[in-house]
Amino acid sequence: MQIQLKLQRSVFLLAAFGCVFPVVGSTLPVLAESDAAAATSTESKSAEVKIIEPAAPTRSQVQNFFNNAEKNATKGKYTDALADYNRALQADPQYVQALLGRGVLSVKLGDRTSALADLTRVIQADPKNALALAHRGRLYYELGNISAALTDTDQALALDPNLVPALVNRGFLQTVIGQSKPAIQDFNQAVGKQPKYAAAFVNRGYTRSTEADLKSALADLNQAISVNKKYAPAYLNRGVIYEKLQQREAALKDFGQALALQADYVEAFYNRALLQADMGRFSDAAMDLDQVIRLAPERSDAYFRRAQLLVLLGDLPAAMQDFDKTLSLNANQPLAYKQRGDLRAQLQNYQGAIQDYNQAVALNPNYAAAIIGRGQANLSIGAAINAVGDLTQAIELDRSNAVAFEKRGQAHVMLRDARSALADFSQALELNPQSADAFYFRGAIQSALGQRQAAKIDLTQAANLYRQQNQGEGYRKTLAQISNL
């Protein structure tokens, strides 16, 4: 019987519950007075032509540059804000508050290198600037330096224990490193100091969810929404809790509300996509992933999830394109290589499939599923000896895998090793008594060996299973085999 390779559906899991990591707010500072008089124009003495230098901005003008930058940043006019910060700093390169503002804005604009440089300059000029330390701590987290993030945040709070967003940030960081108890203490302090600070409730809810206290987590998220009904992250995170509680429609409603409040909320689209996929709403899920990719085109996980959906929807060429894009963005993904290999095998590109399985195994030498896939692909091209080697390796990794025994049995059939084949099919049936193929092959071998009674029992069972599983081709072939006994 021809081996039918199918791309198995992967379990769609919700993205990791996202803590809100708030931006630490800053106050509008006043430009420090300078004793330096405004620069005046000068004249050239070398010619009759009078050269007039432009006057340097006055203190009032520099202050206006800064104030305009702050206003534009608040309105979301980030390009204009950056230009105004630059004007202020061109006039006064040591203007600490403008450096701080530009550093925070650069984080928003994704320019982390410039942000780190500006925030570090602020701290060098003013080592006791708690806001700058808090902001740099947050930036270090985004850069993946948790230790430096904690150091800066600790120092910020030592300087200003009432900096509530920094308390929330530290709690978040402690949750990231698995320190739930001190994280909860920080969130409790934050709530005590600022009872209507929604981010504190959201983060505490997340931390409680990591401790499997979903009831308390839900209460925190309800409280976050109570104090700020327009806070999109609260709806997103409550949606995740509802999903964990199997309240899927409530989860979908919350994800939708998060998007109503923030139309470009990537994580809301992503989480809703995964939930809808898990509910079998594949087309809706794919549309949500389209939005994720539109908003965040470098997210390899979005392409990967969409590729899985496209396979389920039957659009195999588009699925292949998404798998290719996934791996071009992040080649360190054994699961993506394995699933692209599955798709190539389904399209009968067995050599391409073997290459993908090789990559998956190179990244994860104990990846039994990829090794089995490679064994099946070798079996499909008639490389039975290679198939036996692969499937034996897979069995050594996991002796409970019925598929590995069944496929190795088929490879033994190719090699005319009836005894080994019978042993493998019998073991496969011990592990999975519903395998119609294993009954069929074992029955066929018994028939060839003249064991007609045993063959009839196995083939009859195979026929029954094929019929129950709606496998018409297998059912017809088995009936033909029985008629020849």
UniProtKB/TrEMBL annotation:
Keywords: Repeat, Signal, TPR repeat. It comes from the Bacteria. PANTHER family: TETRATRICOPEPTIDE REPEAT PROTEIN 6, UDP-N-ACETYLGLUCOSAMINE--PEPTIDE N-ACETYLGLUCOSAMINYLTRANSFERASE SPINDLY-RELATED. It holds the Pfam family TPR_2. Residues 1-32 form the signal peptide. InterPro entries: TPR-like_helical_dom_sf, TPR_2, TPR_rpt, Ycf3. This is Tetratricopeptide repeat protein. One of its GO terms (cellular component) is cell outer membrane. GO terms for biological process: receptor-mediated virion attachment to host cell. TPR repeats lie at residues 62-95, 96-129, 130-163, 232-265, 266-299, 300-333, 334-367, 402-435.
